[in-house]
Amino acid sequence: xxxxxxxxxxxxxxxxxxxxxxxxxxxxxxxxxxxxxxxxxxxxxxxxxxxxxxxxxxxxxxxxxxxxxxxxxxxxxxxxxxxxxxxxxxxxxxxxxxxxxxxxxxxxxxxxxxxxxxxxxxxxxxxxxxxxxxxxxxxxxxxxxxxxxxxxxxxxxxxxxxxxxxxxxxxxxxxxxxxxxxxxxxxxxxxxxxxxxxxxxxxxxxxxxxxxxxxxxxxxxxxxxxxxxxxxxxxxxxxxxxxxxxxxxxxxxxxxxxxxxxxxxxxxxxxxxxxxxxxxxxxxxxxxxxxxxxxxxxxxxxxxxxxxxxxxxxxxxxxxxxxxxxxxxxxxxxxxxxxxxxxxxxxxxxxxxxxxxxxxxxxxxxxxxxxxxxxxxxxxxxxxxxxxxxxxxxxxxxxxxxxxxxxxxxxxxxxxxxxxxxxxxxxxxxxxxxxxxxxxxxxxxxxxxxxxxxxx
Length: 456
Prior knowledge:
The chain has helices at 4-16, 38-53, 56-67, 81-84, 90-107, 125-139, 159-175, 221-234, 240-269, 290-296, 307-325, 343-350, 356-362, 381-398, 438-442; strands spanning 20-28, 71-78, 111-113, 117-118, 144-152, 156-158, 187-191, 212-219, 273-278, 370-376, 402-409, 417-419, 426-428, 446-447. It is α/β, with parallel strands linked by helices. It is globular, with a radius of gyration of 21 Å. The two termini are 38 Å apart.
């Protein structure tokens, strides 16, 4: 039970500190839609999504209004299309993506995830068709998101898939050159992808999940920053251990809000409640930035020496607070550092404080990885694949989720700016050392899993 003081504090979070439920994501299994006839599969897909999601937006709005807690995004995740539609050609899968986009528009959601494949140990026929379809599918749709898992701690790193994704990212960027390579913002490459992520572009519904389930993503970087600022204003001698405790308690309250909303939405929809993903997911708005937390804790900017240690503390405190608040914390749950989506982080990249190398170091302790990183459009597929491989290695060796959402912006060079709009924000193109990695990447095969893969 929350005390009166904690209730008032939560109300203050809602009014002045950018607390919201960032996304309520309805996961829908498509496995029962399977058919060797693509048209039948797509029709079943349409009917199944409509039957489960037709009231999603209305119910989210009603629950949000009831508690005065805005639900910013309503989304859908589905079973990996490479599994549900195995046997389809790449051209048929592009048509499937178009149907996914249409039905998402019909039910009023902003993104639908699950145009996905799991290829950490090998590439099946359906996986190959889906990967081939990704550039056109993302370029010709507005709401469809794609995720490809190419590595895991138990399987190692599928370098054939990594190289394939380097080429796929280049093709997706070229297919949306007039929009700054926007298709790549809807494509995420993973190691150790969770089955219950509510955030895009990684969201999909794992094969071990229910027929339908509600997963909630709650974001509160502005709330955490204000809590730190209040504590420092009242007691300037606070050390990092005590500040970590303040972050943990703040994460606890934010998680409780997310579970409250998620359970009521799930109950009204008649589906199970899944998890709360407590990820500090920023927006391009002032006061809603993970980067600003670094400044409150004494660093001039994210990217300066000390940033990795600070992010490790922040991520750990968020996870501890969330785990205490709910038995169903899942997804990613930690701190996101998406370059274009966080105004403060974007500024650090623009000023040269935050390099691709420092970003990679930060991903060893954050909850995702190289997220929304704009790089020069001429960057080769081999270099992109090598960057992905480095990021996958961090996840595999450390038994954590890592990901890469890289955007080679056609026609842009290091130092140029690109504007994506909305929650995707804008970014300065980060310089990348191109060339010299091709021989390694083209060797292919699978980098073996580390010894912890034998722990059962």
